[in-house]
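Thread: Newbie trying to understand structure tokens

Hi all, I'm a second-year student working on a class project, and my supervisor (Dr. K.) asked me to get a predicted structure for one chain before our next meeting. I've only ever worked with sequences, so writing a 3D structure as a token string is new to me. If someone could post the tokens and maybe explain what I'm looking at, I'd be very grateful. Here's the chain:
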Amino acid sequence: MPFSRSTSFAGSRAGSAADAGGGINPGPPRVAALLLVLALALGAPVHASEEPKGFLETIHHHKTLASTIPDNGDVNPYAVVVAPVSVGLVEAGDVLIDNFNNISNLQGTGTTIVDYRPSTRQTKLFAQVPQNLASCPGGVGLTTAMTMLKSGWVIVGSMPSTDGTTTTKGDGCLLVFDANGHHVATWAGPTINGPWGNMATIDRGDSAVLFISMAGFGVPGPRVLDPATHYPVTVHEATVLRLEISIPEGKPPVLESQTVVGNGFSQRADLDNFLFGPTGLALGPDDTLYVTDGLDNEITAIEHASTRTESAGRGQTVTKDGLLGWPLAMVMLPSGHLVVCNGKNGQAVEVDPVAGKQIYAHWLDPNQAQSPPGNGDLFGLALTPDGKGIYYVEDDVNALVFGSP
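---
Reply by user tm_fold:
Sure, no problem. This is what the structure looks like when written as tokens:
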């Protein structure tokens, strides 16, 4: 189904700069930041003293690339993954996007992965499975937990529902596809319940380590309210699971071991958003795993993520509140900074995790049809192969968007 909107915004989505870490107060941009945005928009030269403090300040153009709706009508794009290799139906640099909702817009029922090819600007269906797939407890609803390995295997999480809410939520599973989009394996079990957050991956070719948040444990339906807050009940049972897999030559990956490296994260059902739980995962070069916790509005750090033998609990707080607004998907930049997209508004926030500082907020989706603008529109996020741009999805219009300098 074609999607015709194609827009490019030059310097029109700049956000506000910040100097402090946890507890900063979002406010109007500094005069210097405003002058920088104006200079860039007018094409004026930027002096050395006005060099960008981070990646997001270099993003000035946003272009809608394609609809993410396949022929079966699935909507609500979640995961965004850039293909690392050319194999099977996939070309290196292709963007894979999955869908969480079906054509009736019921959450937890999407069954499709689409492939957008930048070289041809075309989108095609990559994979589809039955919604009631017997090997996946509760059926299929594809989440933001997706990766493609250098060996060509695609692994994606499922948190299923039959009525679009957590009232009928199943435990879900992880689905393995080959590079031609064929479903070849299903991983399920007691440690796998609601694979939710975007995966962080260590890919060694013949083996890999996957980090995935599990946000389904103990979550009641959205109409089970806390008498004190009158919101759905919050539970603290979400985990971060490390999966170690081997990849035999010519055969599907084999799940070798599982270790809970983080636990106690907040999760809560929600009628509009299905649920809130830890979503963004990004692995630093020093083996620190960063996790976004939307309900507690913070980013935490789990040290020695690939080697630890026991849980670090919620880890150590890196930054909290400030420009963060229900932080969701997250990526690690070559500079070592983090970029995380907000669920509560249409902004992305750049963070220096070592210093614990929030650097900058940038409007990805300033759609004023929502309040705040862009509320609930963002979810998946990925860097372009050259590290100079970002791909993201806008759930309100079911589209893949490209942000570039």
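A couple of things are worth pointing out once you decode it. The first strand starts at residue 61 and ends at 67. The two ends are 29 Å apart (CA to CA). Feel free to ask follow-ups in this thread.
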